[in-house]
């Protein structure tokens, strides 16, 4: 009887001990899994997966398709030269390109797919601020950096506490700088003193630029009007501007509406300079406005063909772009091209294709030799870089001015 009890107790202790060991193992396994999940995405094998979240259709499709060409061209060059140097070993880039359809909800979904399902090491995109902002929570949760070639709203890279979003960067300047540049150009270069503002109020892009311009313009703002994406008829607003004896119109927005504004202004005999932003840097602007109407048109841009001719890196890019796509290199292709090489630079500086390490590498970019000029990422994850104002005459670029 005693022997039986002893054996029973021994058995119980043994089973309990095994259970404890198994439970402990499960806990440590859980810790290990959690650690892996919280350490970001890494490259596997001989390739580095880079996600591309762009507006390839919808209202901003023109920008996204330009960017796609820039990314693909840069990737082709990098891979042709052996790939990215990761701690002494060359790895080629594999692009995973998805269309967010210029939709905030789709952009958020695309970011989640790229980060969680495709396990990319970094994301290039989006083109627009609204789509990019929608993607931030999913990118941050997965610890995958997103580098937007062109999201310009000042708050895009910032948290509510004013600190930088940890996994969000941009390769362009932000609206306060761009709007201020437009204000200086009209006042100092065009000698404009009475200006009307006509801005897109359906995006942070348009409202942000209008606000920055109005804060920094030294002359008089005689009228401010807003439109919504998709609007077609601007005649009533432009007629009211014409009656106010203005020297210029500041019109920040995208080419789809600004092209119509230019066309309708010229048709009614309103021939004052129309100054806008980089959202006008698309060939479709002239197609919509009509070449004969597109004179005395100016817009701020991070990439000007005439300014770029003085930059050997840009000259090489423009020649290669024309050979590949049989057209002149547009602004948004240049920005995306730079973005791709910036990610390569971040990987090589950190000697790692881990998404968290790439994030660290992006924060360290200083005097990067880009086709859009020397680029330095500041503490708010914004790009410090040159800016120019490009001029159109009869639908053709007729000159550009560097603004300091």
TrEMBL record:
<comment type="similarity">
    <text>Belongs to the leucine-binding protein family.</text>
</comment>
<feature type="domain" description="Leucine-binding protein">
    <location>
        <begin position="47"/>
        <end position="395"/>
    </location>
</feature>
<feature type="signal peptide">
    <location>
        <begin position="1"/>
        <end position="29"/>
    </location>
</feature>
<dbReference type="InterPro" id="IPR028082">
    <property type="entry name" value="Peripla_BP_I"/>
</dbReference>
<dbReference type="InterPro" id="IPR028081">
    <property type="entry name" value="Leu-bd"/>
</dbReference>
<dbReference type="Pfam" id="PF13458">
    <property type="entry name" value="Peripla_BP_6"/>
</dbReference>
<protein>
    <submittedName>
        <fullName>Branched-chain amino acid ABC transporter, substrate binding protein</fullName>
    </submittedName>
</protein>
<keyword id="KW-0732">Signal</keyword>
<dbReference type="InterPro" id="IPR051010">
    <property type="entry name" value="BCAA_transport"/>
</dbReference>
């Amino acid at each position: 009887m005693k022997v039986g009890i002893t054996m029973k107790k021994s058995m119980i202790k043994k089973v309990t001990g095994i259970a404890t060991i198994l439970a402990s193992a499960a806990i440590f396994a859980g810790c290990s899994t959690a650690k892996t999940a919280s350490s970001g995405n890494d490259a596997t094998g001989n390739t580095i997966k880079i996600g591309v979240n762009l507006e390839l259709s919808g209202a901003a499709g023109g920008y996204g398709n330009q960017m796609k060409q820039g990314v693909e061209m840069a990737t082709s060059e990098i891979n042709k030269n052996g790939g990215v140097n990761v701690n002494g070993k060359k790895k080629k880039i594999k692009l995973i390109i998805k269309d967010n359809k210029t939709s905030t909800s789709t952009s958020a979904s695309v970011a989640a797919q790229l980060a969680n399902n495709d396990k990319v090491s970094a994301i290039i995109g989006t083109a627009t601020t609204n789509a990019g902002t929608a993607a931030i929570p999913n990118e941050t949760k997965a610890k995958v950096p997103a580098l937007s070639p062109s999201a310009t709203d000042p708050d895009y890279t910032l948290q509510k506490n004013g600190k930088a979003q940890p996994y969000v960067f941009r390769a362009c300047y932000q609206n306060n700088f761009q709007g201020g540049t437009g204000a200086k150009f009209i006042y100092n270069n065009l000698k404009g003193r009475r200006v009307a503002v006509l801005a897109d109020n359906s995006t942070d892009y348009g409202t942000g630029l209008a606000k920055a311009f109005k804060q920094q313009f030294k002359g008089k703002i005689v009228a401010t009007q807003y439109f919504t994406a998709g609007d077609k008829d601007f005649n009533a607003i432009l007629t009211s501007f014409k009656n106010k004896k203005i020297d210029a119109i500041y019109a920040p927005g995208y080419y789809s509406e600004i092209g119509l504004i230019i066309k309708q202004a010229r048709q009614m005999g309103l021939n004052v300079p129309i100054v806008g932003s980089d959202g006008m840097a698309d060939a479709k602007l002239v197609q919509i406005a009509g070449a004969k109407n597109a004179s005395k048109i100016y817009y701020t841009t991070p990439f000007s063909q005439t300014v770029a001719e003085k930059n050997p890196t840009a000259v090489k890019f423009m020649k290669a772009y024309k050979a590949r796509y049989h057209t002149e290199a547009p602004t948004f292709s240049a920005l995306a091209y730079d973005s791709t090489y910036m990610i390569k630079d971040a990987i090589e500086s950190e000697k790692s294709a881990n998404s968290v390490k790439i994030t660290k590498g992006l924060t360290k970019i200083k005097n990067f030799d880009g086709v859009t000029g020397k680029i330095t990422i500041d503490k708010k994850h914004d790009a410090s870089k040159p800016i120019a104002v490009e001029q159109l005459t009869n639908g053709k670029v007729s000159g550009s001015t560097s603004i300091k």
